[in-house]
Amino acid sequence: MRPYILAETNWKNLKDADFDLAILPWGATEAHNYHLPYATDVIEADHIAAESARLAWKDGARVIVLPTIPFGVNTGQADIYLDMNLNPSTQFAILKDVITVLNRQGIHKLLILNSHGGNNFKPMVRELGLEFSNMFLCVADWFKSLDKNQFFDEDGDHADELETSLLLHLKPELVLPLEEAGLGHEKKSKLKALNEDWAWTERPWSQVTDDTGIGNPKKASAEKGEKYFQAVTQKMARFMIELARADKDNLYE
Ligand SMILES: [Zn+2]
User: Fold this and answer.
1) Fewer beta carbons under 10 A from the terminal one: N or C of the chain?
2) What is the rounded distance in angstroms from the CA atom of residue 65 to the CA atom of residue 85?
3) What is the mean pLDDT of residues 157-162?
């Protein structure tokens, strides 16, 4: 039983407990090329949150990891079989209810550990931060926390070499042989501005990629995944430790 994982601990441990920081991992359930499981983002969220919290706990930080929310925003994948979608407004309602509990129970710092590119918590953190002025709310995208080029050969952002390597490290029994994976080729928009960083539209996923992946997974390996996992959890753990110890009313110098 890990005392920093809410799903595993018990009332005996918790009735007099006092945590400084809650962590809410948030994933998605969606197709990941031909070879990775639909729960890829959930598996990543579970493991990255748990290992980072273990390191933080070992350092004395009082952190508690809430159960991972398994569904994310998949509005652009409506025609991909059994990609599950939570609308942003539903996500907002869930987040608000979670924050309401934490606020009432006196845990005034929350880190949303995001594992899915379609989830965008920033506007929600703005609105809920205004409403719950006693709470410190923040969000971290683990997949943006490190320079991927230092770990992987091929670029990508969905079921790519990075995610495939992570899953080969974390859950190899759920990864099909890489010969069965598609190449994850991404089709670019005919509208030039949309291929740059300053204009955006939701991409109908099935028109952007044939195999649902973006990024070639063929050079993935468990060794690369392990190296990345260790680096990403060490970085996340340092953030958790800092957050847990921070005075939320005195954060700027
Ligand atoms: Zn993913």
Assistant:
1) C
2) 23
3) 96
